[in-house]
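Ticket #4471: structure export looks truncated?
Reporter: QA, pipeline team
Priority: medium

Steps to reproduce: submit the single chain below to the structure queue and open the exported record.
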Amino acid sequence: MRYLAIVLIWFWAGLATAQEWEDRKVFNPGAATKLNIISSTDTTIFAPLIEDFLADRPSVSVEYWVTSTADIDQRLRATPEAFDVAISSAMDLQLKLTNDGYALRLSGVEHPAWAEWRQSLFAFTAEPATIVINRAAFSGQDVPQTRQALIEALRARPEVFRGRVGTYDVRQSGLGYLFATQDARASETFWRLMEVMGGLDLRLYCCSGDMIDDLTSGEIAVAYNVLGSYAAARIESRDVLEVIPPADFPTTMMRTAFVLRGTAEPDIAKAFVAHLLSLQSGDAAPVSQLPMLTTKDGTAARDTIHLEPALMTFLDALKRRKFLSAWEDAAIQD
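Actual output as written to the record:
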């Protein structure tokens, strides 16, 4: 037993030091039972949900590890035993992990059929991909409400927007890849917009938070396909930024969670996922920063990406290489 404890201490110390994490925080340290959660959601946004879960569980602690959506997929495939719950905005990668047997089936969890997959993967938010602008860059100008209008705005004033337009680097961001492939399926406007942005020395980002930081400072003027929920959560940026759900064909992602099949704490892990699903209103404390999934009639909006096998189409290696090649030609112009 002492040897096992030494091995575990070495393992977790190695994770914390040898590998890079965007953030890591322990809630209620020193408790007898620990839940390890790997997530793509910023700690500042998710902390109220964890604290609410622990409020009546003094014997439980949560170690919350934050990394990118693509990195979550890689880490779980390499060391699934290291974590109890996985939370990610990359629905396709989460669905593939579930299909590949990494998720534990949870009996007795009630949720709308369109928001769960095989009683193993559960969606708990609905978050739109948006255009976010720095208001100062559009002072006296029409604010684009569609992708075509954004194309026209960028073409009209290239001197303002050169080097000041950002989006996800879809080669690194699982969520960015999901949004881009969904956009490409919906309309050819996506490719025209990518070419225009690429011609303006497009800036590429790993995650929404970094894009919003640069938008707020004025380093960039426009961010495309950024999560509107992240921008809305920045209270200090509300007078600086404007969030625009595209009126032509909106895309809404559902953030998902699952319990790892090899978890050492299945009951607590299941209780945590059930806690996420019990949150009915984005206006209710402690979750005012996250838009909740459940609608009054329990149905999905038409623009919501569904949990279904077709979601994994662009994870096929050949299709992915083809898509990324076309994307690089449009977005990265020498």
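Status: closed, not a bug. The export was complete when the record was re-opened. Leaving a note from the reviewer for reference: The chain has twelve helices and 13 strands.
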